[in-house]
Amino acid sequence: MNSKNRTETEVPVTGLEAGLMVCHECKKVVALDDRPLNNCPRCGSPIHPRKPDSVIKSWALVLTSLILLFPANILPIMKVEYMGASEYSTIMDGIIYFFKEGSYGIGIVILVASVLVPVFKILGIMMILVSIHFRIESWLSHKTLMFRFIKFIGRWSMLDIFVIALLTGLVDFGFLTTIAAAPAAPFFCGVVITTMLAAEVFDTRLLWDAGTGKDHDHS
Amino acid sequence: MTVCPDCDLLLEAQMPHPGEKLVCPRCGCTLLAPVENSVEKTMVLSLTGLILFPPAIFLPLLTLDILGLESSGSIFTSAKAMVASGFVFTGIAVFFTSMVIPFIKLLLLFLVSMQISLGKANGATTLMFKAYKKMDEWGMLEVYMIGILVTIIKLLHMAKIEYDVGFFCFIGLMGATILSSSFLDENLYWESIFSQASASKTACQKAADKGEKAVHPA
Fold first, then answer.
1. Fewer Cβ atoms within 10 A, N terminus or C terminus of chain B?
2. What strands, in cross-sheet order, belong to the sheet with A78-82?
3. Which of residues 91-120 of A touch B (CB under 8 A)?
4. Which of B10, B64, B69 sits opposite A13 (nearest CB)?
5. Per-residue confidence (pLDDT) for residue A38, from 0 to 100
6. B160-163: strand order across its sheet
7. B7 and A205 in contact by Cβ < 8 A?
8. How far apart are CA B10 and CA A7, in angstroms?
9. Is there a contact between B137 and A172 if contact means CB atoms under 8 Å apart?
10. Helix residue spans in A10-158 (DSSP H)
11. B150 contacts in chain A (CB < 8 Å)
12. Hey, are the CB atoms on A189 and B90 less than 8 Å from each other?
């Protein structure tokens, strides 16, 4: 109530209040009163004040990745055949193996890329979505920074999948030893893809709208 | 007047000089980061990447030697082996993120840069640049590079490893790709494409008008 009065009397702070919107694709600033303007005059993409249905799409994708996270970590991700005997290992087994071997550096790299990054991404996006729901006003710039970081690290979880692909292709000694992927691999890929998409569809401006009491409907 | 794309703050700002950055004071988003000679640098680097692409992907990367038995593979054969072992979805994801998308990205960036530098950007250039931006984060060559290093460390104690031509070409390919996108001045590209495309449109219109006048001299 209070915030509504404030926005009406004070000078515009946001682009939306000034009647401007930014193209999602090429970042061109377009005047809202040019409506019905459906496409960006510079790049031709559909244009909206905010990404449409951003929060609900992000929720759907992030919950999907949360579900996929369990089989990805519980099932074995790699199969090593040595002299006819198969040995399966999960992501955690691979990390423990490196720590036991004394290769701490590489163990930490894989721990961060395959376990910590996916969990951090899912929890981070969920935290941001919850904070929009409850219109939490604090830490706005920190949450934006965290989101930017989540977007940046998103791709790095593919590391383990690339390592398994390389091992499959390189270690092919017939009966002596071969390496292949195991059932967790597609689930793990799914976690990476869905978290990247969840970050892609999310609109950080909604965080600021909710945090500054300007989350009126703008479809 | 401009607006921050990340937090929608209304800003009054000047165009920064090359090497400088325009940063949103509220959320820290980089709005503009002009690069000197962006089009030329990006064009040359994307062409370098395109030249290095075939050897980096198809030539052997590493050769392993276990007790005199040898086995070698390239980035292409690795993804193929993954599909062949029954992991079709994972294999296709590897194919796209390490080969298909990086290649299309380089090709699009080269074509767009060339059309801008020739002054012949048009509607198709807009579509190509938009496609490039959409694919941007799905090309994962630098992640693959770290993957190669992890693989080497994993195999170091069980096999003798020889580095082949593909390995060095891949390092070059990754470097060229990273540099080409870091020299890319997005705003400059959009502005150049837009002004050239609309100039060619009005030129066409003028030509059409002249044609009409010639037909109807009255």
1. C
2. A85-89, A78-82, A177-181
3. 101, 103, 106, 109-110, 113
4. B10
5. 80
6. B69-73, B62-66, B160-163
7. yes
8. 14
9. no
10. 54-74, 91-101, 104-110, 117-133, 140-153
11. 106, 109-110, 159, 163
12. yes
CATH classification of the domain holding A72: 1.20.140
Distance (Å) from the alpha carbon of B208 to chain A's nearest alpha carbon:
23
Residues B102 and B54 in one domain: yes
Q: Is residue A3 part of a domain?
A: yes
Domain assignment present for residue A170? The answer is yes
Instruction: Look up the domain containing A123 and give its range.
Output: 50-211
- A219 lies in a domain? no
Average of pLDDT values for A61-76? Answer: 96
Residue B70, domain extent: 35-185
Domain count, chain A: 2
- State residue B100 phi and psi, 5-degree precision: -60, -55
Nearest by CB to residue B64, choosing from A151, A171, A207, is A171
CB pairs under 8 A between A and B: 192
Binding-face residues of A in 40-99 toward B, CB within 8 A: 42-45
- pTM reported for the whole predicted model: 0.90
My answer on whether A104 and A152 are in the same domain is yes
pLDDT at position B168: 97
If asked whether residues A118 and A183 sit together in one domain, one would say: yes
pLDDT confidence of residue A172: 86
pLDDT, tens digit (0-9, with 9 covering 90-100), for A115-171 = 999 999 999 999 999 999 999 888 999 999 999 999 999 899 999 999 999 999 999
In a domain, B206, yes or no: no
Minimum-distance CB partner of B71 among A166, A173, A180: A173
Question: How many Å apart are CA A44 and CA A148, to the nearest integer?
Answer: 26
Residues B10 and B46 in one domain: no
pLDDT band at A8 (very low <50, low <70, confident <90, very high): very low
Instruction: Share the mean pLDDT of chain B.
Output: 92
Contacts B80 to A, Cβ<8 Å: 169
